[in-house]
Design a protein that fits this description.
The complex is a heterodimer of chains A (about 325) and B (about 375). With about 325 residues, chain A is an alpha/beta fold. Chain A has a domain of about 220 residues: Class I glutamine amidotransferase (GATase) domain (Rossmann fold). Chain A has 11 helices and 13 strands. In chain A, β2, α2 and β3 form a beta-alpha-beta unit. The longest helix of chain A is centred in the middle third of the chain and has 37 residues. By secondary structure, chain B is α/β, with parallel strands linked by helices. In chain B, α6 packs across α7. Classes of the chains: A alpha/beta (about 325), B alpha/beta (about 375).
Chain lengths: ~325, ~375
């Protein structure tokens, strides 16, 4: 189990990954994952400069391209799995819309407020149920694929594993940059990078932070088509449990939508919803948060800008995960 | 109704200097709150406003400010409206249509150009202009020797990040060259793809020499697109040959062509973008008031309305409130929804014109074939 995990906000104009590495005593080379940048993976000079230590790019995206080019049988099966995952995501998304419609319809009925509050809990429960079901289906599909195809035992993938392990042994930490979160998750899983990193400290920002949690949530309150509802993408890698990471919230989250924030935080409970702007940081030791700088979306619809890592407290049995 | 600006002019001395100052101190047409005042200056027997706003008289006379050469007409204009118009100036008993010489805002279309009035709150979208920092897709013209229509040329857009190792969705645009010329579609694609809002897609721009027939539920057109054009483009490029990755779009008769082609090949095109579709129908009888060109459209729409079917998966419909087709488009939406298809419908305070269709592209394209903006967190 990796002992230290550090999640950071976006590293755009004022990167603080170098400070974070220094604060944790990382002096030697680090292994860098830029698979979220896909074809731009190798363009890492500016990013490496911000680290303040030498870095070795693990080139996971390029490695995956070579696997997909050379192992045709595996590639066909992998692409079929990805197609299936995309369809499942689409259908889950359709159902989410219907639940959202129903929740809104019920919420504007002229009945006793106490009944409406109860109905809101039912609506949130429906979101929670479908979110959990979606994650279960994704996990089952991935498990079935792994059992059938045993990626780690494919000669080409095993060769990459050996190379990645050898690089990681020379590094003091693993650093995971942001980018395309699904692409990043898939490459980290395909090459079992966290397994190979053993107990080395792991640092991740934006999408790189999202994949380290136990549940990845896609969100954007201002999409080009007007409005959207947050959706669970998949399980994360689970090194930073109990939180939902929301990078770049000032651009993506409508802080004025109190009811939306309230429902989202209730939907994700008991996980803490952490909005991570530049400068935000959450530090885990042995699977628990030891300190944090960031904002937290609360189940009352507020944004706690001074969240310090304290766990969320839920008075309602419902929000503690106890069925009504 | 008289606008404050006109009242002020009338209350003043009405000297040449005062009139000059009036013109120097305003931009035209004059928008004051929810009213708009069209103004023309010169000697004439009459001046008329000519526009295409359905529901208002298409020709309205301007009044003259007494003892001046200033003509004006004030109308109510709801917020966010956009209206295309011309002025007709009558001299010696002869009317001449012209663009408003006082208004720099113009729109082009295949018939020429119009002046454009912007109501309070309307803004030209920023994403239609060339963004020098955005990567540019590659544009080309290629030809196909079609069994159905003989040799035909079509436009092609290849996204800037194109790689042979990836698979791409396909967007087919009816009246595609007009979308490029009059709806800034090249800039729109460059900007939306660069901003991750629209998928990296291969885009084909088709045009027809006989669109009023070929687009009116013509079996040959559907066959040409589906059995010749799509397979041809699939041979040229690595396309994701799934319904979810094929989109047909068009405006006016082009929207009819998109829906009728999808209906002839249900399940082949998973995405439809229908703008101001000429979806004429009848509730009784088989002749529509729009004339014989619409007869095949009416027959098609009446069949579709009798047995609506989920011919696609996701359909974006848009229409202007100021066009006569608003009734037909509003009527279509519940039918589409009843089939189980995912439908999004958008109205704008605009007319049957290319800039209305341009302004809805971002919303429609990003919803039908979104780029990775929801997945990218840097």
């Amino acid at each position: 189990m990796t002992s230290t995990v550090v999640l950071l906000g976006p590293q755009g104009t004022a990167p603080d990954i170098g400070d974070a590495l220094a604060e944790h005593g990382i002096r030697g080379p680090v292994a860098l994952v830029r698979a979220g940048y896909q074809e731009r993976e190798a363009e890492d000079a500016a990013m490496v400069a911000t680290l303040g230590v030498p870095a070795v790019n693990l080139t996971l995206h390029a490695r995956s391209v070579s696997v997909f080019r050379e192992d045709g049988e595996f590639t066909a099966a992998y692409q079929a799995r990805q197609h299936r995952l995309r369809h499942i995501q689409t259908f889950y998304r359709v159902r989410l819309d219907k639940i959202d419609d129903a929740a809104r319809t019920v919420s504007v009925r002229y009945v006793e407020p106490e009944l409406l509050e109860q109905e809101e809990k039912v609506s949130v429960d429906q979101f929670r149920h479908i979110d959990a079901d979606h994650v279960d289906r994704c996990n089952a599909l991935r498990a079935m694929f792994d059992t059938r195809w045993r990626p780690a035992q494919r000669p080409l993938i095993a060769k990459h594993h050996d190379e990645i392990r050898a690089i990681l042994e020379t590094c003091d930490a693993l650093v995971i940059a942001g980018g395309h979160v699904a692409s990043l998750l898939n490459r980290l899983q395909l090459f079992d990078v966290l397994g190979l990193a053993a107990d080395k400290p792991v640092f991740g920002w934006s999408a790189g932070a999202m994949v380290l949690t136990d549940r990845i949530v896609l969100f954007h309150d201002f999409p080009p088509y007007g409005s959207d509802i947050a959706q669970v993408l998949d399980s994360g890698l689970g090194l930073a449990p109990g939180i939902v990471v929301l990078p770049d919230p000032r651009r993506r989250v409508n802080y004025k939508a109190t009811l939306g924030i309230q429902r989202f935080a209730r939907r994700m409970a008991p996980a803490t919803c952490v909005a991570m702007d530049p400068g935000a940081r959450v530090v885990f030791e042995n699977g628990s948060i030891v300190r944090a700088v960031g904002a937290r979306l609360t189940t009352s619809g507020q944004v706690d800008q001074d969240w310090d890592g304290s766990p969320s407290r839920f008075s309602s049995p419902f929000l503690r995960g106890v069925p009504l | 109704m008289k606008a404050p600006s006109i009242k002020a002019l009338e209350a003043g001395p009405r000297t040449r200097e005062a009139v000059d100052a009036f013109f120097a101190n305003h931009s035209f047409p004059i928008v004051e709150g929810h009213s708009i005042t069209f103004v023309w200056r010169g000697d004439a027997e009459a001046v008329h406003l000519k526009h295409w706003v359905f529901g208002l008289p298409s020709s309205q006379q301007l009044a003259r400010v007494d003892k001046t050469e200033v003509w004006y007409l004030t109308l109510q204009l709801p917020p966010s409206s956009r209206v295309e118009y011309k002025l007709e100036v009558v001299r010696n008993g002869h009317g001449e249509w012209m663009q408003d010489p006082l208004n720099q805002n113009t729109a082009r279309d295949p018939f020429g150009g119009n002046s454009v009035a912007h109501g309070t709150g309307y803004e030209i979208p920023t994403w239609i202009h060339e963004d020098k920092s955005a990567a540019k897709g590659h544009r080309d013209e290629i030809w196909i020797d079609s069994k159905t229509f003989g040799r035909r040329g079509f436009g092609l857009y290849i996204p800037s990040r194109f790689q042979r190792s990836r698979y791409y969705p396909l967007l087919i645009v009816h009246d595609g060259h007009d979308y490029l010329r009059y709806a800034s579609m090249g800039n729109v694609l460059d900007n939306m793809i660069d901003r991750l809002e629209f998928a990296d897609a291969i885009v084909v721009f088709t045009s027809s020499p006989d669109r009023l027939h070929e687009y009116a539920d013509d079996e040959r057109h559907a066959r040409f697109l589906t059995e010749e054009l799509v397979p041809y483009v699939e041979r040229l490029f690595p396309l994701d040959a799934q319904p979810q990755s094929r989109c047909l779009m068009g405006a006016s008769f082009g929207a009819v062509a998109a829906l009728s082609t999808a209906s002839r090949y249900p399940g082949f095109y998973g995405r439809l973008l229908l703008q101001s579709g000429s979806f004429a129908f009848t509730d009784i009888g088989d002749r529509n008031h729009r004339g014989p060109l619409f007869d095949p459209v009416v027959a098609f729409m009446n069949r579709f309305r009798a047995e609506p079917a989920p011919v696609s998966e996701r359909v974006f419909v848009s229409c202007g409130m100021y066009e006569s087709l608003i009734y037909e488009n509003r009527s279509l939406v519940p039918l589409l929804l009843s089939t189980g298809m995912d439908v999004r419908y958008v109205e704008a305070r605009d007319g049957h014109n290319w800039e209305n269709w341009r302004d809805r592209l971002r919303e429609g394209l990003s919803w039908l074939m979104p780029g990775p903006f929801l997945h990218v967190y840097e």
